[in-house]
Amino acid sequence: MYYIGLDVHQRRCVLCILDQNGCVVKEIRVNGHWREILELLGNLGHPFAICYEASCGYGPLYDALKPLAARVVVAHPGHLRLIFRSKRKNDRVDARKLAMLMLLNEVPQVHVPRAEVRNWRGLIEFRGRLIAKRVRVKNCLRALVRGQGLQLASGKGLWSRKGLAHLAGLELPSVVAVQRDLLLEEKKELDGKIARVTRELDKIAKQQPAVWLLRTIPGVGPRTAEAVVAYIDDPKRFARNRQIGVYFGLVPCQDQSADKNRLGHITREGPATVRKLLTQAAWQGILRSAQIKAYFERVQHGDPKRKKIALIATAHYLARVMQSMLRTGEVWRHDVQSEASARKKEQAA
Known about the structure:
The longest helix has 33 residues, at 174-206. The strands form 2 sheets. This protein has a 5-stranded mixed sheet with strand order 3-2-1-4-5. The radius of gyration is 26 Å and the shape is globular. It has helices at residues 35-42, 58-65, 81-84, 91-104, 115-146, 161-168, 174-206, 209-214, 222-232, 243-247, 272-288, 290-300, 307-328, 336-348, and strands at 2-8, 12-18, 24-31, 48-53, 71-75, 252-257, 260-266. It folds into 3 domains: 2-104, Nucleotidyltransferase, domain 5, CATH 3.30.420.40; 115-207; 211-348, no CATH class. By secondary structure, it is α/β, with parallel strands linked by helices.
């Protein structure tokens, strides 16, 4: 068995081939796209395992290598400390280190989903970027009008038909009016793009029973459910439910030595889009479910300063529940006792 480390770039690739004793068999540098590597590996005439770092386009490369190699491993670039913290870093050295990690079976792997799941994830992220652009446009409009000493409606009222008509009809200097008109046109264009992407996501969600399963949780809408399903992909790849919090970056940083254990802010690893949606779903769940609200209040301990900590803990709780639901296929189970106690509190108040 050969162990191959592959350092991939858009116009250049470097391979390092090690034998089972860790000796270098061959080091190859190929100028051109990684597709030229496939022919070379196909004519290798020896079984091999190959490793490369996850980067843009790692999915198609994985699909192309899988029929050729006995094993294909995609490494997490952020966890490759042997390369990231090295004082001597170049393509040849990186390829050799990847091959050695592959030989030692110490590669920090990433999960490679199917092509349709990768495309689904991409569309979810694309919608998030469109929404972020629209938020920036709205903020620019508010700042533009506020700079003229005028007051606008607060909240969502400004973006209703009546509010937009009022904004478009404001008498402003010509230089400012041009900016306002262009920003309004950009917002309208973004609204249409977001609606189109949302319709496409809704079509995909209708074909995913797991999305409808997660929507039985109070406060979890279609966007949160589809993002969680797309990024978990295969719930069985997590040995324990608590690993889902690590994957989504909802667990605190830890510095433990002897009897001292320091916990810091959350790691923020994994997909930020899912982490944001889970936090929003946690807020909605607190408002809609006595069971989720009871969990939030139990973590908060009645201390307003622990509100953010309790919110993140609730989002982590929802992520674990979702993982469990996807594994078992069960719908959300309401806690009758929590709801009854919540009603008693409301009546007492």
